[in-house]
Amino acid sequence: MSEQLTTIQASNHPIYFNEKGYEALNEHLRNNKYSNLFIIVDSNTNESCLPKLLPILETDLTIEIIEFENGEINKNIETCVEIWNVLTELGADRKSLVINLGGGVVTDLGGFVASTFKRGIDFINIPTTLLAMVDASVGGKNGVDLGNLKNQIGVFNLPVMVLVNTEFLETLPQNEMRSGLAEMLKHGLIFDKNYWEKFLDLKELDYADFDTLIHRSVAIKNEIVTIDPTEKNIRKSLNFGHTLGHAIESYFLESAQKTTLLHGEAIAVGMILESYIAYKKSLLTNAEYVEIKEAIKAIFDDIAFDTNDIDPILELLIHDKKNEYGSIQFALIDGIGNIKINQLVENELILEAFTDYQS
C-alpha cells in the first residue's frame, strides 16, 4: 500500500482512505445510537467483499445482509420496492443505518433506498469498484434507471461518510478496472492537464502510485461538487463524455443484438466523440484531439456501430436528464484541463463524430 492518504472533507461528510476508514466507521458505530445495521450488497460483493468487511465491524448491533442480483439491469424501482419491503419486514426504523457495499449500481441504488425509506435514514458508501471509488460514491447522487434510461429517478442526498479501500480492487476483473479508468481520464481532461498526462503512458504507472491517483481523482470530483452540489453550473463539467456515452450505454443495454457495455466503455467512446466535436468547434487543436483519441483507444477496444445504430442513439439523447428547454446540452473540453458547459451541438456534427471515431 502506498503512503497514508489524507482524508478528503466533502461538503458535510468525510471521505476516508484505506485503514483509516475502518477506524472511522467503528468510531461512528460507537458514537451513534443506531437501532440496527443493514448491509446492501449485490451477488458479486456478497461473495467477494462482504467477507473482508464483516470481521472488522466492532458492534453489538444486529446486522442484516440484503442482497440483490448484480448488474445495471437490476438498478430499477422494482429492486428498490423489494428492498424497502425487506427493510420493513426486518424492523428497520428511522434510527437504522445502511451500508452500501459495492460498485456504482449498489451505491446509487442503496443510497436512493436509504434516502427515501421513512423519508431518509443514514447511509455509508463503501465502493468496491474503481468506477464507484472515483465517481459513483462521491457527490451525493442517488438513483435508479427508468427502463433503459439511465438515472432518470433519483435524489441528491449525502452519505454520512465514504470509505475508499483499494484492497477491494484485488477482486476486480480487468475490464472493470478499465471502466473506472475512464472517469479518471475524464477528471484530468476537464480539470487537470498534469493529471491527464500521467495516463499517457500506462506502462510506466506503478500499481503503488494507483492509490495516489485515485485520491487525486476523488479530490477533483469533490472540488467540483462542493462548489455546485446540485448541478446548476460547474458540476455539469462532469458530464463530459456522458451525453453521448449514456445514450450509447442505454442503446446497448436495450438492444438484443448488442453486447451490454460497461459504463466506462461507453464513456470512453463518448469522450472521443465529444472531443472531436470540441475540435470541430475550435475548442481543441487537432494535436490535442489526436492525443485524446489515441490515448483512449490504447486502453479501450473499439466499439462497432453500423448505420442503423446511430438514429436510435440520437433518439435517446432527447431523454438525457441534462437537457434543458428541449435542447441537448454538452459539456465540451476547451483545451485539455478546461471545460465549457451548456454547448449546443447540431446533429450533423454528432454524425460526423461517429464517422471519425470509426476511421
UniProtKB/TrEMBL annotation:
Residues 180-323 form the 3-dehydroquinate synthase C-terminal domain. Its cofactor is NAD(+); Co(2+). Pfam families: DHQ_synthase, DHQS_C. InterPro entries: Dehydroquinate_synthase, DHQ_synth_AroB, DHQ_synth_fam, DHQS/DOIS_N, DHQS_C. Its EC number is 4.2.3.4. Keywords: Cobalt, Lyase, Metal-binding, NAD, Nucleotide-binding, Zinc. Residues 66-178 form the 3-dehydroquinate synthase N-terminal domain. Catalyzes the conversion of 3-deoxy-D-arabino-heptulosonate 7-phosphate (DAHP) to dehydroquinate (DHQ). This is 3-dehydroquinate synthase. It comes from Flavobacterium frigidarium. The lineage of its organism: Bacteria, Pseudomonadati, Bacteroidota, Flavobacteriia, Flavobacteriales.
